[in-house]
Amino acid sequence: MKKLLGGFAAIVMSTTISGAPAHAQSKNSTPHALDCMAKAGFTHDMWVARRAGTNAQVAQYIACRDGVSVSQAKQTGRSDGNFDTFKPSKSSK
C-alpha cells in the first residue's frame, strides 16, 4: 500500500513539475521573440513596460514573432491592444 501511494505521489509531482515550464514562458519571452524584439529595436523590459517604440516597430516585431505579414501583424496588435492609441486633446485658446 505504501509503494502504491508513493508511486502515485511521484506521478502527480512529475506531472505537475513537467507541466509548469510550458505555461510559464509567454510567447513574448521566447528566444525567437527576444530576437524579433532586438531586430525591431527594443528589449523585453521595454515591451513589459509598454514602452516598445513606435507602432511601426511593434508591428514589425509582431510580424517577425508570428511569421505573418505586417498588415496581419497590425490586426493582431490592434486586437491585443499593443499599439499606442494616445491622442492628445486639442487645447483651446
TrEMBL record:
Region (Disordered): 73-93
Keywords attached to this entry: Signal
Signal sequence bounds: 1-24
Name of protein: Uncharacterized protein
Organism: Bradyrhizobium neotropicale
Source taxonomy: Bacteria, Pseudomonadati, Pseudomonadota, Alphaproteobacteria, Hyphomicrobiales
